[in-house]
Amino acid sequence: MSANPQWDISRALGVARLFHLVCGVRDACVTPFLTLYLRQLGLAAPWVGVLMGAKHLVAAFWAPSWAFLAKSYRKRRALLTGSLLGSAGASLLMALVPPPDEAPADPSCNASRGARPSALPPAAASIPRAVGAPGLRRAPAGGVHAPAGRPAGYAVGSVEGAGTAARVLPPVASGLRDTARAGAFKVGRTAPPLLAGGTAPGSPANLSAAKGDAGALGLSLEGLRWTFLLSLGSVVFWELLTAPLEQVADDSLYEYLDFVDATDRYGSLWIWRLLGLSAGVCGIAAAVGQLECFVATSGPRGVLHFYGYSVVSTVALLVSIAFPVPICRRQERSYETIKALSLVGGDPRLILLTFTVFLVGAATSAVQNFLFWHMKDHGSSELVMGFSVALGLLGEILLHPFKTTLLRKLSRMGTVGLGLGCLAAQLLYYSFLWSWWAALPAQILSAVSNGALWWAVKASVEDLATPRTERPLGAMFRGHIFGGGSSLGSFVGGFVVMYFSLAVLYRACCVLLLLWLALLLSIQSRLPQEQKINYSKLLVMEASDTSDSEQGTERDWLVKAMREEYSE
Questions:
Q1: Is 116 left (phi over 0), alpha (psi -120 to 50) or beta?
Q2: Residue 376 CB partners (closer than 8 Å, separation 6+)
Q3: Are residues 282 and 345 in the same domain?
Q4: Rounded to the nearest 5°, which phi and psi values hold at 163?
Q5: Domain check: are 465 and 386 in the same one?
Q6: 465 vs 166, which has greater pLDDT?
Q7: Structural contact between residues 346 and 568, judged by C-beta atoms closer than 8 angstroms
Q8: What is the pLDDT of residue 537?
Q9: 349 and 483 together in one domain
Q10: Torsion over CA of 296, 298, 301 and 307, rounded to 10 degrees?
Q11: Could you report how far apart the first and last alpha carbons of the chain are, in Å?
Q12: Is the backbone of residue 170 left (phi > 0), alpha (psi -120 to 50) or beta?
């Protein structure tokens, strides 16, 4: 205890609240808008899915490893400092990733300066420049005009002997879906050039033109590949530095409070993180909307998100200096994680819970990765996107006072079913999105589909876990299982968006969740009801009921608990 001369619980909790608040603001600067930025770099949906899948995979399996090593070698303070400092620099690497071609001017910035927006979105503009199909040119005054809702200024000229063709480029309504098919995944396949005059299809002139178009397309695809590889390296390196931070901070604070038997005050700290996320996601969106036209006049939009992330990481680094990290610690078993893993394979309730959390992770990734794409295509600003995220987070905070009542009235499994149903309803609603503001009402359901569902999962884990495995088992569900589902969902979701549509992805996830919900309820009703021994609850009950005359008398529950402990 000499290494910690003063155990100031109030000060430790105050610093922890501030740290969670600042880290929430920090994560909100980039995480919700990352896929939108990748789209602005010109990356198609499958590539974005691969990037996000790799990010979730690193977080799911790298963070527990580093947290274990930091605890074993007593280097938690160094890891906190290194993670915050390294992630502040690594985030700027994403801002340095160049798009495959020079990014066009932002139409909203042009409109604010009185200029007429005439540029295509970044990814769509690179493909027309790469393809360079003969006859594709700007329409002259008084010539053929593009229909309403399509990019202005592009039309196909006349072909001798064939009349005038009013072909124009279709809009990029589903986030590079056509771009990905035409350019990113069909290397060397170019559209045949329009025939000029009486030139035969196999003439040398047309063959040379086709070779030229293929060469231009090859250059553009090469640029897209480099953009993808640089983005992948930056995201993975960034996640390697960022992932261990939250788990190391939580473990340190929990052990600090455990030394003085104050762990009951640990459970309310998550609210401060949600408050930070809510404030950060709206604040960074408002700041980007005001400053982007003045700071990021060229290149892809959204670089200010990374600058903001770096600045807030520096603030979090200053707060982490006072963060409570205990140096002396109690000796604990090193195989608790392995023991928790064996519990999952031996309990049918935990197996059902594992599949549920895995599917929730896969479905949630579809919302997190592409909902902002959907809103952007309907004319939404980043401020509205940020406000939609804040609605769900604030709804979760407001629902928390009813947590005990909800779990008691519906039971844990009933609350899990309610969360699955609300998530399925959200996905179905998003598939029919008709305007930028239409996503806002459905975000309120996130209080149940995210908050209440995880409350029920945590309560079930605590009830089914054996002593000293509650936290490792809960971390496994939050990290490995949910992260693995998010990774797989990201990998598959990107290809579904490309080959079908975003609406098909959302409806498929909705159907999958509803089928699993029906199967879960039918299996759960057939399982025998069994309660595990909970030391803390039994000790509280015993302390209130035991009199002096009963001291020295062994209770049945104590005998069972000791037998279970020594048998393991």
A1: beta
A2: 36, 39, 175, 385
A3: no
A4: 85, -170
A5: yes
A6: 465
A7: no
A8: 53
A9: yes
A10: -40
A11: 31
A12: beta
Specify whether 320 is located in the same domain as 338.
no
Classify the C-alpha dihedral 241-243-244-249 as positive or negative. positive
Q: pLDDT tens digits for 518-528?
A: 999 999 888 87
d(CA 253, CA 232): 33
C-alpha torsion 498→499→501→502, nearest 10: -50
User: Is 151 among the domain residues?
Assistant: no
Domain shared by 315 and 398, yes or no: no
Confidence of residue 548 (pLDDT cuts 50, 70, 90): very low
The model's pTM is: 0.75
Q: Which two tokens stand for residue 59?
A: 């977080």
Helix locations, 500-551, DSSP H = 502-524, 535-545
Distances (CA, A) of 220 to 124, 156, 182, 194, 517: 12, 22, 12, 21, 45
- Dist CA 417 CA 456 (whole Å): 10
270-295 vs 382-399: helix axis angle to the nearest 10? Answer: 170
Where residue 54 falls among pLDDT bands split at 50, 70, 90?
very high
Is residue 420, in this structure, part of any structural domain at all? yes
Report the distance separating Cα 197 and Cα 119, nearest Å: 31
Residues ≥6 apart with Cβ < 8 Å to 393: 274, 277, 278, 446
Domain boundary among 331, 365, 385: 331
- Nearest in space to 143 (alpha carbons), one of 164, 120, 119, 116: 164
SS3 track for 460-488 = HHHHHCCCCCHHHHHHHHHHHHHHHHHHH
Instruction: Tell which residue, 360, 362, 301, has the closest CA to residue 494.
Output: 362
Phi, psi of 554 (to 5 degrees): -85, 130
> CA 230, CA 93: separation in Å to the nearest integer?
9
**Residues 299 and 353 reside in one and the same domain:** no
Torsion of the alpha carbons at 156, 498, 27 and 41, rounded to the nearest 10: -30
Rg (CA), the chain: 28
Q: Is residue 538 part of a domain?
A: no
The whole-angstrom separation of Cα 523 and Cα 238 is 42
Q: Residue 334: what pLDDT?
A: 52
Q: Residue 189 pLDDT > 60, yes or no?
A: no
Confidence label for 69 from pLDDT (cuts 50, 70 and 90): confident
Q: How many domains does the chain have?
A: 2
Tell me how far apart the alpha carbons of residues 205 and 40 are, in angstroms, rounded to a whole number. Answer: 36
Clarify whether residues 348 and 460 are in a common domain.
yes
Q: Is residue 159 very low, low, confident or very high in pLDDT (cuts 50, 70, 90)?
A: very low
Same domain, 336 and 347: yes
Q: Is 224 helix (H, G, I), strand (E, B) or coil?
A: helix
Q: Say if 482 falls within a structural domain.
A: yes
List pLDDT tens digits, range 104-134: 455 556 554 444 443 444 444 444 434 343 3
Domain boundary among the residues 331, 363, 384 is at 331
Q: Which residues form the domain of 456? A: 332-526
Round to whole Å and give the CA distance between 562 and 529. Answer: 23
